[in-house]
Amino acid sequence: MNKLEINTAQNVKIQYNLASLGSRMIAFAIDYFIIVCYFFFCMFLLDALNITSSDPYLFYGIIMGMTLPAFFYTLIAETAFGGQTIGKKIMKIKVVKLDGSRADFYQYLSRWTLSIVDIWMTMGGIAITSIVLSKHGQRIGDIAGETSVISLKPSLKLSDTIYEETFENHPILFPQVIKLSDKDANAIKDVYQTAFDRRDVGILTALVQRLETIMEVKHPEQMTPNDFVLQVMKDHYSMFKDK
């Protein structure tokens, strides 16, 4: 799976898995189904209430007014739910800025406006081609809005990430972990779990800085902050597992 790599102001590199084309297409299909159901609901409601008018312009105006929310569905949903529509929530994908942070209204507006061109007018042809060929899996609307779509599904279980390589003779790279109590270790795991689940750069950055302060050590430049935290947890487990 392709990844979106960002470098924060604190020089912390974080990688996000880009949403696959398949998951984006399924999310779109779910959203399209919701829109179609809403249109049918509006028609059913008008028929049930026997709303008619001798003025056809007034009647069509009522229909347009009732169905207008469906036209803006994607824009409204992504703005309200922080980059997700109902389809995206189900598929666990999300629209973000290229730096991994939350997109703003104008970026959602750019995506929605250009979806008329790269999705609706071309039956999705331009969007699919652009997603496949672009480095960050962007359709035209994403390129204009400087956004991308990431997957929120964890690629590994946290327990596997921490312990799968912790063998009997696991080398301890940071003996300073002796300064961490069991309570500290549990707190580190909980905080890391939160950052892991939310893909939150800020939480991970704060955790790395806190570990550096307590252990009085600087994480090596060749080691990512994510790997540094995992190594510290492995070292602590290895050092105290028999005590």
From TrEMBL:
Where in or outside the cell it occurs: the entry states:
Membrane
Every copy of the RDD domain together lies at 18-145
Q: Does the keyword Transmembrane apply?
A: yes
Q: Where are the transmembrane segments?
A: 25-46, 58-76, 112-133
Q: Which residues form a coiled coil?
A: none
Q: What does the record say about its membrane topology?
A: Multi-pass membrane protein
Tell me which InterPro entries the record gives: RDD
One GO term of the cellular component aspect?
A: membrane
Please provide the record's keywords in A-Z order.
Membrane, Transmembrane, Transmembrane helix
Protein name as catalogued = RDD family protein
Q: Which organism is it from?
A: Sphingobacterium puteale
